[in-house]
């Protein structure tokens, strides 16, 4: 019997398989497709994803294969109204102050290679037909490549099977939300005349908009835009020549060749159940939203990492089954907030009418240019888009506050202090910035938890850390407990109250 059966080998399913395998959990991963995708909608890899990729030594490989876009340009009515240098916004917040453009199909192939290196192969043309929960496992009926059926038993089932998720349907979970009337188009193109090259460009013109994401090579780029008039009713028959070009023309670029073009409808929905017994929903199976901000794939990856350490802890007998309930609590709250945020932004950039056009193309660009001059505004916007602002403060797993850092927060990164170096491992750890109490080392040794002590500096205070406090970090590098007294008694009480046995 396998520990976890993963259905769906997109980025979410592959990341779940990688994190579980690295923690010694036995997985089986299946996908009904014949191979990794040949085309790609998801393009952006956000800073928080790269931070978490350090745990599998993935970050540098992904960065080397992709193209860091260091600035974002906002255009309106044919003129560049604002330029946001992302390094200015996020350089003090993360080691990765940029938007990495890395097509999903290439991303998937890299993840498959890493998984195969760990001894796990994606079983292609294999489909889940149905499943039944038993007392201590899930019995899944699979359709194999030759059409025969096979019974697979696993302790848990992970549905990473996309927006039309059969697993979600069998769970009886709702998928409340709606569908935007606009139809999105995506096009891989060769362009010339884009200035500055190698950066992100967003152009607004009346109710038309387009985003240009640079691959950083051979004038290749990805165009993302919308079709909102009567042509949207026949989207499946559209070509690139049929979509509006006003925003594209406003950038002063020439599209020399269209390598790939596709249209699709976008939904904004969140399921009411991320967990039902031994079955879980992740990624698009649990939540979908507009592509504004490049959040979708990154959110699915975060789902996988959140669930992976919890499944590993329960399977190893280090935590009770109730730990798995926190997956829904933490990830559903974030998904709902994300859908609400991206919905507001998308509604703004596509709103129709004379007044909406004036606000979007005249007032908003001026406001953005002025607001960008303030460091606080720049930092806030970067943290939201990069997902480094994401926290679990309301989680039952979060406790305490030391400095301005609370339980549930992402551990602040301190430039030059290398305090993220220990985060390259998957496991619990304690950080102290300053001096550690003599009895704290003994407590950490007793529980098999590494203790990392960093010499105190003003840089630590600047990011909100408290001198000599103890920060107990979860395996996904979020702060579980922040204790200003660094008391082993408080640490023990935290673990005991949640039934953790980490040895």
UniProtKB/TrEMBL annotation:
Location of the FAD-binding domain: 3-341
PANTHER family annotated for this entry? BINDING MONOOXYGENASE, PUTATIVE (JCVI)-RELATED, TRK SYSTEM POTASSIUM UPTAKE PROTEIN
Cite the entry's keywords alphabetically.
Answer: FAD, Flavoprotein
Q: Which cofactor does it need?
A: FAD
Signal sequence extent = none
Q: What is the lineage of its organism?
A: Bacteria, Pseudomonadati, Pseudomonadota, Alphaproteobacteria, Acetobacterales
Entry protein name:
FAD-dependent oxidoreductase
Pfam families membership: FAD_binding_3
Q: Does the keyword tRNA processing apply?
A: no
